[in-house]
Every structure is written in C-alpha cells, then in structure tokens.
Give the backbone structure.
Amino acid sequence: MPFPGTGTIWMNGSLVKWADAKIHIASHVIHYGSAVFEGARCYDTPQGPACFRLAAHTHRLYNSAKIYRMPIPIEPAAFDEAILGTIRANGFKACYIRPLVYRGYGEPGVSPMGSPVDLAILCWEWGAYLGAEALEKGVDVCVSSWTRSAPNTFPTMAKSSANYASSQLIKMEAMADGYAEGIALDSQGHVSEGSAQNLFLVRDGVLFTPPLYSSVLPGITRDSVITLAMDLGYEVRETVIQREALYVADELFFCGTAAEVTPIRSVDRIQIGPGRCGPITKALQSRFFDVISGAVPDHHGWLTYVYPEATGADTRKQEKAVSR
Ligand SMILES: Cc1ncc(COP(=O)(O)O)c(C=O)c1O
C-alpha cells in the first residue's frame, strides 16, 4: 500500500511539505545509488520524546559518508539539531528517523564528484518492523541463497544505499518463499546478518554474534545489546558462526533499529529451542524496551530528549561513539 506520508521533511536546511520534497530524475543518486543514510528511532518516554543513540547514528552516518568521499557540509552537532528540529516541527511523540546524504543533480556519469552532496531528514510514525506479534512470538526465517558482499567489494561498515540492493534480494526471496526474513551468509559461508538486522545466537547461556568481518553492518542495536547483556552478567562472544549452529541454537534473535529485539522461532523450518521467545532473549528484550522507553535510568547516556528544557534535568549528556 502506498505510504501517504505526513508533515514536513528537512532538505538542505529548509522544511518542505512531504508532498513537495522532490529531487530531479537526473540526480546522481537515482542512477548510481550514491547515498548513505541512517535509520534511528525516537521513543515516547515519561520525560517526552527521546531519540535513542542519536550521536552514535550521526557518527556512523559521517563515517559512511567519509568512506564514500562525500563531505557533509554541516557539523555533526548541527545535523543532530536538524533532526531534533524536524521531530519538533512534526510534533511527533515517537517516530522513525531517516537521515539521508545523497549525490544530487550535477554532472552525468559514474563519477559522483561533479554532483552536490545533498541532505535530507525524514520522520514518520512506524510501529514494529516485523509486526507487533513478532516481538512476542518470534519469526520464521530462512538462510538466504544470496551471499552478503565479500570483503573489499561493497564496504559493510558503510550504511550505503547501494548495499540495500543485496538486502532487497534477501528480503524478496525470503518473502516469496513464505518467510518473514532471510539470514545471509558471508563469502566464506559463515553467518552474516538479516536483510536489515544483526543476529544473536544463545547457546548454553552464552551469547554469540558474528564479528564485523563477517560482512555485517556495525549495528547500533547490536552494540546496545552487547552492552545490556554484559550489564545483566551474560558472556558475549563476537565470533564466526557456522550455518548449522543456527539450527541447534537454544535461542536466536534479530536486532536492529527497525526490528528492535525480535526472536526467531525457526530457520529453514527447523524449530529453534522451544519455538518461541527464549528466556535470555526475553530478558534482553525487556531490558532494551525499559531503556528506550525511559522506564529505567539512562546509565549509558543513550537518550537525547527532543525538548530537553521540559525534562528538568541535564539530559543532553552524550554517549561516546560506538566502538564495536
Ligand atoms: C544490513 C543491516 N544490518 C544491521 C542493521 C541493524 O543496525 P542498527 O541497529 O544500527 O539499526 C541494519 C539496520 O539498519 C541493517 O540495515
């Protein structure tokens, strides 16, 4: 169903009505996928709307742009302010946030250097990506026949639009075959990630997740889950995972800004553990939702309040950049 869209979009410093936020068909990005972007969320908390790990998302956006030689013409702090201003302009209590850095209308040809680096920020209200029921009951997934990009091809550290050609192939194949999602393997045949989620496996009480060299996006939710798991006293290992380890896991779950923490109940029609959300997934999911909803103190400085003056506290303390 076409998405009607609402409110205003920030484009190169101006707020533009959703219906008027257009770019020229000759823009470089349309022909060559020359964009990097972010996906973040703002949550409704008792102290008002708060963006989850805004600084980490902006930091990753600037890293992605650096890899693709796209100089962003404003400072990260100004970008953060533009995001907060866009949420305020739309009056959202909770929303998904999509910052975009793209090569606009300039010179034709593969080289992006003659095309401007344009910026946009879109926000919209978006519920559970894999469905509200999925958070509770889990999803049925397959191992994709599509391999994630090999090292030194499309850099997976960059959240580049071009990488999502691979994600689309994984997602379409999974859906065509009746699954909610696909898990891609890396070029060595080891577990990589879902089309737009990182993955965790639980075995004998220990959490395992593929390392960044298994062609995964350095997910901010992945980093948050590792931190929360360690807070809760679990051991976490970033290690290469064989495909068959998926089938014999006690628990499996996806994590990501859109998917949040979603249990996986089967892979290739093989039931995982008891076929529902396992106890460690549940503990981490609950902790994650408590943190993002402001139900527990923000020990890690992960929440940036949209209306800081209304919270009555110094809530603008910023976390350090993601190191994992
Ligand atoms: C390919 C891919 N992997 C992992 C993730 C999870 O990353 P994050 O937790 O930063 O949203 C995403 C989500 O954007 C993604 O697109």
